[in-house]
Amino acid sequence: MRLNPILTALSGAAVGFFIGVSFPVQLGPSQLPCYYVFPWRGGEGGGEATAGSSTTTNILGRLWVPFVVSNNSNSTGAAAAVLQQPNATATTATCSPAAANNRNKPPPTGAERLPPKIVVSESDLHMRRLWGDPRQDTPVRKYLLTMTVGFTEKANVNATVHKFSEDFDVMLFHYDGRTTEWDDEFPWSKDAIHVSARKQAKRWYAKRFLHPSVVAPYEYVFLWDEDLATDFFDADEYVRLVRKHGLRISQPGLDVTRGKKTYDVTTRRNDGSEVHRSTVGGPGNCSDVHTRPCSGFVEVMAPVFSREAWACAWHMIQNDLIHGWGLDLNFWRCVDDPEEQMGVVDAQYVAHRAVPTLGRQGNPETGGGGKVRARAWREFADFNARIRNADRAAAAQQQEAAAAAAAGSAAPLATRPPQPPRSK
Ligand SMILES: *[C@@H]1O[C@H](CO)[C@@H](O)[C@H](O)[C@H]1NC(C)=O
Ligand SMILES: *[C@@H]1O[C@H](CO)[C@@H](O)[C@H](O)[C@H]1NC(C)=O
Ligand SMILES: *[C@@H]1O[C@H](CO)[C@@H](O)[C@H](O)[C@H]1NC(C)=O
Ligand SMILES: *[C@@H]1O[C@H](CO)[C@@H](O)[C@H](O)[C@H]1NC(C)=O
Ligand SMILES: *[C@@H]1O[C@H](CO)[C@@H](O)[C@H](O)[C@H]1NC(C)=O
């Protein structure tokens, strides 16, 4: 449907290759715990046509890396290393019962007990009919728009939704408990998915309701706030530009003449450019363009993720840190080349009205919005500490694996090596 047939064939071949190589002898039930259900049907879709070969490599990289002994410094290299391997000794060893206690073994998915052909590891957020032939239901849309909303912002949300075409499935997260009112006023609401949980933050919903296997069919996922002025925005045109420029994490430029601004790099350029990826100088004083947030940076209020980038970002959202502060400074980890694959779309832009809607959701008797902000700051510190520690642990594991490989023994599995943090 959305997939370039060549890519589909290639990723199918990759999966076939994987299964064939991993289970060269027998496929008995005792071997099945090593079967890993890859949550994606394919790559980033036809949109990455210009980077087709690297996308394919990247799929292989993500697929293979967890099973590979590697001392390569990047995932592309790891994938290449596997493909060059004449046999799969390391992989087979990993899946043997002897390796059952390996701490890096992927946990069972639950699908192992079933005959593989009945396993459906993906879903979507598209509503179907209760009657008729399932094959004749309206097809799942190509993209997904999600917004975290309160009913007081209904006019703006309605205006925003109207900027998105029929190619989008729409999902609203309600933090104020008011859901049915939307149906009464807006016809599109009846076709939208509504999730209601009071006083929760955008990242809380995203973690719980946008699991990568559930949003798998959508080539791009929009995670938007409710307070964006979209007068000069068209979603289809936005997707066209993002695809054209190979942006895997992006946002519309922010029109600072009409709205708030936090960073230079996400400010819309009014110079006729379609997209930009970095900034230098200016009030943000980006003297080093290679640091975040001077390039490879997208803010949290209106990010747009490719399917694969979202799968990564979802895993980075901490379950307990619901405000998600600090995530945007780390989105760069979710693409191969942040300075190329992350950017800001100037030609389709919005204004950030910065309505402190969620801030009002603190309990007045316990401090209200002030305490909400205090928690967000605390979460920011916690997140930074966690990611620092995780980087250190991954680096240590990497060294251990390299040492073990050098010693010729079966090494623990390599994880994707951390890239050096470059945020200021
Ligand atoms: C690790 O890297 C070294 C040097 O690049 C190479 O000789 C060695 O084969 C590599 N080991 C593995 C397990 O890839
Ligand atoms: C990643 O690995 C590939 C293949 O080994 C290599 O050509 C490339 O230079 C590496 N890139 C970086 C940034 O290390
Ligand atoms: C291939 O298998 C043979 C025999 O099991 C082993 O000696 C050799 O090291 C393997 N080669 C690689 C690259 O894993
Ligand atoms: C919703 O937005 C559309 C497009 O801007 C507009 O035509 C319509 O009147 C709005 N609906 C309501 C109930 O305000
Ligand atoms: C940028 O930093 C320099 C010093 O490094 C300072 O002199 C200058 O005023 C700053 N520019 C802005 C716009 O803040």
From TrEMBL:
Residues 415-424 have a biased composition (Pro residues). InterPro entries: DUF707 (IPR007877). Pfam families: DUF707 (PF05212). Residues 93-104, 392-414 have a biased composition (Low complexity). Residues 93-114, 391-424 are annotated as: Disordered. This is Uncharacterized protein.
